[in-house]
Amino acid sequence: MTVKFCCMVMRINIDCNGCYRKVRKALLDIHELETHLIEKKQSRVSVYGRFSPQAIAIKIRNKTNRRVEILEVQEFLAPEDVVENHTHHTDHDQKPLMSTSWNMAVTTHNNQIETRIV
């Protein structure tokens, strides 16, 4: 089981605010995740951190009792691996770690909370 920096997009059915809270609580309880983004209207959840994608999907499934469908996984080099690969150049198929950080904006309208990347 390989553990790398990953960005994973999943589809999780989020019908109501209770489902949203259940998914959010499950994501906050998983310590491998550095950040997450829940798109309630699109029923999509994006997570970023050092984890195995299958293991995280199983954890979310077990904690929320909701079906989890992995849509996309992007793997990145860890910051220490980037320094090592500049000298060795062994892995050419991996993408470097994103240099920009995720800036999140939280807005509320019509009693709904929306979190988005700006």
Automatic annotation (TrEMBL):
<protein>
    <submittedName>
        <fullName>Heavy metal-associated domain containing protein</fullName>
    </submittedName>
</protein>
<dbReference type="GO" id="GO:0046872">
    <property type="term" value="F:metal ion binding"/>
</dbReference>
<dbReference type="InterPro" id="IPR036163">
    <property type="entry name" value="HMA_dom_sf"/>
</dbReference>
